[in-house]
Amino acid sequence: MRSMVQAGVARVEGFGLAGFSDEELYAIHTSTLEVLEYTGLKIESQEALEIFSEGGARVDFKTKVVKIPQYLVEDAIQSAPSTLVLAGRNPKNDIVLGGKRVGFINFGEGVSIIDPYTKEYRKTTRRDVANITRFCDAMDQMDAVLRPVAPQDIHPSVAVVHNAEVIFNNTSKHVFIGVEGGRNFKKVLKMAAAVAGGEDKLRERPLFSCNICPTSPLQIVNHASEVIIEGARAGIPVNMLSMGMSGATSAITLAGTLVTHNCEVLGAIVLSQLTSKGAPVLYGSSTTIMDMKNMTAPVGSPELGMINAGVAKLAQYYNLPSWVAGG
């Protein structure tokens, strides 16, 4: 098992960041509960709507709006595991998430690359996925591997399966991957089960986790719901990774953005826990700001760091393992 550093351990005095007090976190929490109960989330998946309805949420099947009472949110937070073991093919690369443990992972989804040999700026390929995955596998600083690039030489309809095959064959660390729907999830699950030695062994030691992204503001689209549901049933960790943009798809204030973000992530966690109580989840974030001048979402902005420091504090407040963007 990999040894991981811990954040917030007071070994020496020095610089620290505490963006929100406990009272402010509580205010964000209560505002979140109010939005979820009285405004709700739009849920596209019919199966997800039925799960919410059977679980006690107020569901309008015509508008597809789900209003989640406070007790369901609180129950989901309590039932979600506070600690996760993310297994690698090699057990020495297992990592534990929870509390103040801190690990690191590469960024992902690049569609272009500067060729390391020719220096040509070109589109990414399947071979790049393999090469960068091996590079991340060799780096002690990387505790897990996220699909590093999105290969442009594979048809989008089969890209997820090709990505999974390449990554599983080139790392002994835990893998994070976006599977883009329930159908692809089942294919990747079978592949990972073959690597692990069967679905039972995969459930005991999940070799991969899935990332899903709610659509800000306050919506979970069909393919994201499918992955949440199938992941919960299979015991595969699902990272609820909101990607709001302050000033565009969420409030201009950082606290307001955190409320929207919190609604989306907790709503997804409720769906997971209603599907299978105790299902493994991560409280995720790649939320940032909207650059009003250039109309972009800058992941290197100071505000991204501030937002994600707040997200990490919220995850600790809920005693949930978290994943946040570092810029």
Automatic annotation (TrEMBL):
Methyltransferase found in the keyword field: yes
Listed under GO biological process in this entry are:
methanogenesis; methylation
Q: Does the keyword Zinc apply?
A: no
Record's keyword terms, sorted = Methyltransferase, Transferase
What name goes with this protein? Glycine betaine methyltransferase
Q: Which GO terms describe its molecular function?
A: methyltransferase activity
> What's the Enzyme Commission number for this chain?
2.1.1.-
Alphabetical list of Gene3D superfamilies matching this protein: Trimethylamine methyltransferase-like
- What family is this protein classified in? Belongs to the trimethylamine methyltransferase family.
**Which species expresses this protein natively?**
bioreactor metagenome
- Which Pfam families does this chain map to? MTTB
